[in-house]
Amino acid sequence: MTYDSRQLHADNQAFLSRRASGAGLLIGGEWQSAGGAATFATLDPATGQETGRIARAGAADVDRAVAAAEAALPAWKATVPVERARILWKVAELIEANIEALAELETLDQGKPLFVGRWAEIPGAVNQFRFFAGQAMAIEGSTIESSINYQPPGKQVRTWTLREPVGVVAAIVPWNSPLVLTAMKLAPALAAGCTVVLKPAEDTSLTALRLAELMQEAGVPAGVLNVVTGFGAETGAALAAHPGIDKIAFTGSTATGRAVLDAAKTNFKRVTLELGGKSPSIIMPDADLALAIPGVANAIYFNGGQVCIAGSRLYVHRSIHDQVVEGVAAYAKGLKLGHGLAPDTQMGPVVSARHAERVEGFLTRARADGATILTGGERTGDAGTFITPTVVTGVRPDMEIVREEVFGPVLVAQPFDEVDEVIAAANDSDYGLAAAVWTESLSTAHRMTSAIRAGTVWINCHAMYDASLAIGGVRQSGWGRDSGRQALDNYLEWKTVCAVV
Ligand code: NAD
């Protein structure tokens, strides 16, 4: 499971010596160190080795970054839409031109197998910038036929709306899919004419820093994008509470989402929250099992289960339960774990030692609660933070392992008998991010699509995404939507105009 990280792409070696020496805050177009030159280590989760030093921004650094974003706002929001579109399209082209190096960097930082970044997430980031380049030129208000009739004689009343950028945005992102989740914030915010202070996750700042370099190269003006790296409780909290921030675009855990909401209260910042999930995969008795078994396995083991929409609860009709669960367990056992940069790796480590301990804690408590670990559930490897893909059975609906988001390669399987029963079980969750239904019946598919409370429902597939499709959840999975046309609205205010002419 070891890999020689000195064989990195030449661009990444140059980038690491340039940025991962601590000179990694982008403020007002200048790369700077944090006050007091504070840094922290970023690690390769597959080996535990230090990859570089990341600048640790404090409150004073955050102040400077917000001031730079405020100063850049008037000129950026006055830019004609086609100019914003041109720059965003150029960002997409630069990401695409650097895709091999970016995928490698993401793997080194986050642990994911190279193919995940190379073929799924980084193309996804490219498409976010392309999609919102188009959206920048499609911002529309409306004219309204009002019923106002007290204008002076001979005059007319005209009423219309304008869309205007919300202002300075704090974009706070997690570590599981760093680049694409960052793109989901930056592309619509910049398209709308907002300026941004970005806070990447402390475990995975590298691709955000490289993206910021590429965005400078694409012509994003100084101060329009600022990046402050650091810890959540320090840098993130200072940013979320900052009075100069007009809107917080947050993706992360439900618990942190609550803290962000509290911080936003001070000056009534606009807030969107993309939070956790415990998404059900439901296999009906008529499902095509040749598709469904690998489909539900991938739904949980892709990216080591560190996916907000991971299908972590599996409900299988009792008539096929054992066949499906054995099939998924065999799939799990067959997955090749290893360093994400090794070409045959199918699943990498979890992101950090802290997170591995968290996942192990869930499994220890599940065992103590009486659940059966059918396969997996172990730390493995001489170094790094590898956890074997896990299937848990013999659970009760009230168990922690059924209710809480593990955010690791842990699937909880349960049988059901009736459609109404499985709909109720699927909805028996604090979360409502996504769901997948596997059935060959059109009417079952439609019925369940309507009945399941979730932001996205997939039929006979999982995690099919596109920049044109909104992502987000109901209940404790959050507020608002990223991606798709809906995301642009997050960054635009309405202004009503009423004129007597
Ligand atoms: P996290 O909540 O710990 O951290 C997310 C970000 O918030 C990080 O940048 C962190 O530094 C920052 N942060 C932490 N404390 C803060 C505070 N007090 N104030 C401001 N910022 C703070 O989440 P994580 O562990 O990095 O990510 C995993 C979570 O993200 C999971 O729950 C997952 O489901 C969720 N997620 C949701 C979506 C979605 O679209 N709904 C997508 C990806 C991940």
Give the fraction of residues assigned to helices. 40-55%
Shape: globular
Main sheet characteristics: 7 strands, mixed
Strand runs, count: 22
Low-confidence stretches: none
Measured on Cα atoms, how large is the radius of gyration? 24 Å
Instruction: Give the termini distance in whole angstroms.
Output: 74 Å
Average pLDDT taken over every residue: 97
What structural class results from the helix and strand content? alpha/beta
Strand order of the largest sheet: 14-17-18-13-12-19-20
Strand content: 15-25%
Give a list of the ligands. nicotinamide-adenine-dinucleotide
Total DSSP helices: 16
List the helices and strands and how they pair.
Layout: H1 10-19, E1 25-27, E2 30-32, E3 39-43, E4 50-55, H2 59-77, H3 81-97, H4 99-110, H5 114-136, E5 143-144, E6 157-165, E7 168-172, H6 178-192, E8 195-199, H7 206-218, E9 225-227, H8 232-241, E10 247-251, H9 254-264, E11 270-274, E12 279-283, H10 289-301, E13 311-317, H11 321-334, H12 353-369, E14 372-375, E15 379-380, E16 386-387, E17 390-393, H13 400-403, E18 410-416, H14 419-427, E19 434-438, H15 442-451, E20 456-459, E21 478-479, H16 484-490, E22 492-500
Parallel strand pairs: 7-8, 7-10, 8-9, 10-11, 12-13, 12-19, 13-18, 17-18, 19-20
Antiparallel strand pairs: 1-2, 3-4, 5-6, 6-22, 11-21, 14-17, 15-16
Nicotinamide-adenine-dinucleotide binds at residues 172-176, 181, 199, 201-202, 232-233, 236-237, 240, 251-253, 256, 259-260, 274-277, 308, 405, 407, 433, 471, 473, 477-478.
